[in-house]
Structure to design on (320 residues):
């Protein structure tokens, strides 16, 4: 009996250890704008649309995480796009900065961050958020 | 002489701050920011979440995180270089424990960390988190402290090609008014 209890306890401990910190993913469809996570979240400048496109390209090449800002206001940090697991200076993400897209994927919510694994890009409308008309070019104005 | 004494005391104070337990982070004036120094393991975030784990944390392709002992996963979104993230600073520590010093920004939109200093835990040498420009300059052939390296975003071939193709607004043909 003691042996059974010991094995059971060990199995529970092992199970707890291997799942510690892991989170289940939710299947989602997100429609929104590809953004530079840093500038948008910190609001150190206006960080959306055409006004911020150039800076978004700079930051993407610099390795700052790229996100999809959903129409629901949630920031979803992109970790993978289909079969491409590059999330630092990904050339593909570089070409779609500021685009309005619809993507399917797996969403992990962990410690104040939404992480998105894009399994399929369902739609790409290009850039439709013409913010330069109000904000000019952010930052520096050139 | 007084100026020298003042400089020496200033340097000593700075060293104490960097070496001691309190954060040496510089405030950036960002809403929700708080100075934070903590010990954590450098992890591949995609691996941590999904179990997809290539060698060496993805060898620079992937965003890296800081996994604290209590299971909290921190996203270092920024280092000290202009327009740059922290992956270059963290990759050499893949799978190892570091002491990270910087700014934790608990914005309701997303919790982000600015990595300003790091050292191998528990008592490695402190180093500034400015690995992006270090590596960019090395690849470019520019001196690390040159004006070209500091303005790397004006000279990067990937950026120039993208902006020449799509324009600063991202829409071909749409250009700023003269």
């Amino acid at each position: 009996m003691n042996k059974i209890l010991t094995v059971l306890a060990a199995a529970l401990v092992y199970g707890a250890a291997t799942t510690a910190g892991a989170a289940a993913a939710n299947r989602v469809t997100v429609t929104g704008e590809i953004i530079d996570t840093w500038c948008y979240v910190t609001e150190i400048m206006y960080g959306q649309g055409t006004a911020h496109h150039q800076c978004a390209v700079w930051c993407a090449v610099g390795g700052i995480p790229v996100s999809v800002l959903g129409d629901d206001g949630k920031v979803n940090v992109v970790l993978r796009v289909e079969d491409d697991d590059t999330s630092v200076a990904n050339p593909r993400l570089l070409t779609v900065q500021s685009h309005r897209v619809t993507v399917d994927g797996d969403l992990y919510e962990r410690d104040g961050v939404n992480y998105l694994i894009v399994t399929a890009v369902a739609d790409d409308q290009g850039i439709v958020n013409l913010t330069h008309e109000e904000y000019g070019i952010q930052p520096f104005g050139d | 002489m007084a100026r020298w004494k003042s400089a020496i005391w200033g340097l000593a104070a700075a060293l104490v701050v960097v070496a001691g337990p309190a954060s040496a982070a510089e405030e950036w004036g960002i809403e929700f920011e708080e100075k934070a120094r903590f010990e954590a393991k450098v992890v591949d975030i995609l691996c941590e979440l999904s179990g997809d784990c290539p060698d060496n944390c993805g060898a620079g392709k992937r965003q890296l995180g800081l996994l604290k002992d209590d299971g909290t996963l921190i996203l270092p979104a920024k280092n000290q270089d202009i327009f740059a993230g922290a992956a270059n600073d963290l990759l050499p520590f893949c799978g190892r424990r570091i002491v990270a010093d910087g700014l934790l920004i608990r914005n309701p939109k997303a919790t982000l960390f600015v990595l300003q200093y790091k050292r191998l835990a528990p008592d490695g040498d402190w180093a500034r988190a400015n690995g992006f420009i270090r590596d960019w300059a090395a690849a470019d052939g520019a001196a690390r402290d040159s004006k070209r390296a500091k303005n790397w975003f004006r000279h990067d071939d990937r950026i120039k090609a993208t902006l020449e193709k799509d324009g600063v607004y991202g829409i071909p043909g749409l250009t700023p008014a003269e």
In short: The mean pLDDT of chain B is 91. Residues 22-127 of chain B form one domain. Chain B has seven helices and seven strands.
